[in-house]
Each structure stands twice: as C-alpha cells, then as structure tokens.
C-alpha cells in the first residue's frame, strides 16, 4: 500500500498553495545580516570592481543604508572598514584608535537607526601593512598571543563605540576567552560574541580583500591560521573550543561550499549557527547571472534557502537587501 500508485510524491507539488503548505524551510528578512564596507570621505560611494552592485560608503551615508535595511526587516549589519593606506602599519595601531573609521561608523548607525544591530569584525587585516589578521614576527609568522592581546583591546574599543556583537574573524587560539573576560571586566555584559569558529583558508575571499584594501599587500597566505578546506572534524573541535571559551554564537565561513560543516555544527552543538556567504560566492552568482547562465533572483533565493535547509540560524550575505525585497515583495 505504501508504494506507487498509492503513494505519489508529486501530489505534494501539484499547486503553489500545496508547495507553500509543505515547505520545510522559509526565508525571512530576519535571517540576514548585511555586510557593509565603509570608506573615509563625505557623501562618498565607491563601487567595488569585483563585487558588482556592492560599494563602500562614507560614514555620513551609512545611516541611510542602515535605515533601508531596517525598513526591510533586516536585524543586523556587519561593518568592515577600508582603512586609509597611510594608517596601515606593522603593529596595526589604528585598530585601537577610538576615533577610527569603524568606531565612527558604529556611532553613525546607532545614532541614525538605534533599532538595528551592529556587528563588527575583530581582526587586524584592515589595519596591518602586510594584510595579515595578526602581528607577524621577522619571518612573517603570525604571532598568536601577541595578536590576542591586541584583538582584546580592539573588541573593547568597538564595544565602547556601541557595537552589539563583536565577531573575531582572526582564527587565533584563545581569543574568545580573552575577549569575553575583557568585555565582562569592562561592564559590557550584553555585548555578544559571534565567533568565526570554523573559518577556512579560502579562495573565495578575493573580492572582500579588494573591498577592504588588503589584497595587494598580503604577504603569503593565511593557511597558518585559517583552516584547511579538507577538514571537518577539526571544525567541530574549533567550534567546541569557542563555545567553551564563551562564544554566544558561532559562524562557519565560507558558506555554500561548507554546508556540510554548517549542518554538522548545528547538529552537534545546537547553538545559534551562522554562515557567511562570502564575497567570492556573491561574485560567482553575479557572474553567472551576467553571463546568462541562470536567473539572478532564483539563484539568490536558492542559495539562501540551502543555508536554512542545512540548519543555519542566519546568513551574512551581500544579497541581503535584494533577498529581503524578493521575499517580501
Ligand atoms: C578578515 C575577514 C575576511 C572576510 C571577513 N573577515 C577575509 C580574510 O580572512 O582574508 C571575508 C569575507 C568575504 O569574503 O566576504 N578577517
């Protein structure tokens, strides 16, 4: 009785109402975190060549961008600064400047749209002359503990400027515990930590590095601290450690090529698990659409629902506004 023709799976696909009724997952604007790039200057928009449709915005234009996002129901933006070249140094001092670009950006958004969340990246790559996420020794090795000390200060500076969520994206060991302790000691009890817990050394970050101006300067690669794409058991250990150290939420990055990691992490730990659909993924979708290889809107929605199916709590995506419009429109 349980097989054909008594059971016809296509009955469940017979009409839009039926498909709606049976959908196991749905996209909602609250699933998205929208990354925004920030530049110096006033009334300034700088398009990013390798990310068609994405720009850097000067601080005075950010409030309007955040308003647009909030109006669409997007709960949170993620900020990334393009630090002026003359402020990039060996020791990344600008990361700790309380009046740096990112701090001014946080305040501008909090002033303009207090109801939207602001997430900031804790890592030194927008501030170092060599483009690495941490401090290096003479051989170019990225020093763990010295870097953690600065990241901790950086997270505090961001929290003091008004960041709601700090997101260490550096993959140093022990940074979540150090940051949590400093936030507690500093009275920032409600500033959350979203740990880039399983972050892979990926070829999909290229356009982002153009956007934050670290591309041409990176010496070597980041494989000494970011994870090997071959590994998944190691990702579970990374996530376990970050949770033990006090991460409130964890992230897997990149997104689409690592959905297996998202699914395993969510199943194993059940903590809020975010995925970052990174710049190269965005660029790939845009390139496919521009080449006529697929319908842009459909590609966007299909990739995003895949994150939900894998168990992601939410997705950082450059398509956040487009997707929110498609869903609600
Ligand atoms: C840097 C950082 C990177 C991204 C987010 N934070 C790049 C890197 O690790 O080199 C990538 C995001 C994207 O590609 O969209 N700490």
Briefly say what this structure is:
The protein has 329 residues and is α/β, with parallel strands linked by helices.
Give a description of the structure:
By secondary structure, this protein is α/β, with parallel strands linked by helices. The chain has a single domain (25-328), classed as Alpha-Beta Barrel (TIM Barrel), CATH 3.20.20. The protein is built from eleven helices and ten strands. Helix 8 (259-269) links the parallel strand 8 and strand 9 (273-277). The N and C termini lie far apart (43 Å). The mean pLDDT is 97. It binds ligand PBG. Ligand PBG binds next to helix 6.
Please, what is the CATH homologous superfamily?
Aldolase class I
The number of distinct helices, counting runs of at least 4 residues, comes to 11
> Which architecture per CATH?
Alpha-Beta Barrel
How can the largest sheet be summarized? 8 strands, parallel, barrel
Give the bound compounds: ligand PBG
Report the uncertain regions.
none
Distance between the termini: 43 Å
Strand fraction equals: 15-25%
Q: How many strands appear in the DSSP assignment?
A: 10
Helix content: 25-40%
Structural class: alpha/beta
- Write down the oligomeric state: single chain
Mean pLDDT: 97
Number of domains: 1
Q: What is the C-alpha radius of gyration, as a whole number of Å?
A: 20 Å
Shape: globular
CATH level 3 topology: TIM Barrel
Write the layout of secondary structure elements.
Elements: H1 16-22, E1 32-39, E2 45-47, E3 55-58, H2 59-71, E4 76-81, H3 101-112, E5 117-122, H4 144-161, E6 165-168, H5 175-185, E7 192-199, H6 206-211, H7 233-245, E8 249-253, H8 259-269, E9 273-277, H9 279-290, H10 296-310, E10 314-317, H11 320-328
Parallel strand pairs: 1-3, 1-4, 1-10, 4-5, 5-6, 6-7, 7-8, 8-9, 9-10
Antiparallel strand pairs: 2-3
Helix pairs in contact: 2-3, 4-5, 7-8, 10-11
The protein binds ligand PBG.
Residues 121, 123, 125, 133, 169-170, 205, 208-209, 222, 278-279 line the site of ligand PBG.
């Amino acid at each position: 009785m349980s097989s054909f023709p008594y059971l016809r799976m296509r009955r469940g696909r017979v009409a839009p109402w039926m498909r709606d009724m049976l959908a196991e997952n749905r996209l909602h604007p609250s699933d998205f975190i929208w990354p925004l790039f920030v530049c110096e200057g006033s009334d300034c928009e700088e398009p990013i060549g390798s990310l068609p449709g994405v720009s850097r915005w000067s601080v005075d234009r950010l409030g309007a961008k955040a308003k647009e996002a909030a109006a669409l129901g997007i709960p949170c933006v993620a900020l990334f600064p393009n630090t002026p070249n003359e402020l990039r140094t060996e020791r990344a001092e600008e990361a700790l400047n309380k009046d740096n670009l990112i701090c001014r950006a946080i305040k501008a958004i909090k002033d303009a749209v207090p109801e939207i969340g602001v997430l900031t990246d804790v890592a030194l790559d927008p501030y170092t002359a060599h483009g690495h996420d941490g401090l290096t020794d003479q051989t170019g090795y990225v020093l763990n503990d010295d870097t953690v000390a600065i990241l901790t200060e950086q997270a505090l500076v961001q929290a003091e400027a008004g960041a709601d969520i700090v997101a260490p994206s550096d993959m140093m060991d022990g940074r979540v515990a150090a940051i949590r302790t400093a936030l507690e000691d500093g009275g920032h009890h409600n500033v959350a930590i979203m740990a880039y817990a399983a972050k892979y050394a990926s070829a999909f970050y290229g356009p982002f590095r153009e956007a934050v101006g670290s591309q041409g300067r990176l010496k070597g690669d980041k494989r000494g601290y970011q994870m090997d794409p071959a590994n998944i058991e190691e990702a579970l250990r990374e996530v376990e450690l970050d949770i033990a150290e006090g991460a409130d939420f964890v992230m897997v990055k990149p997104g689409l090529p690592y959905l297996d990691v998202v699914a395993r992490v969510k199943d194993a730990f059940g903590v809020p698990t975010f995925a970052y659909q990174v710049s190269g993924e965005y660029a790939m979708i845009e390139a496919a659409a521009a080449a006529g290889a697929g319908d842009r809107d459909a590609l966007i929605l299909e990739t995003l629902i895949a994150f939900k199916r894998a168990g992601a709590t939410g997705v950082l995506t450059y398509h956040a506004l487009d997707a929110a419009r498609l869903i609600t429109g």
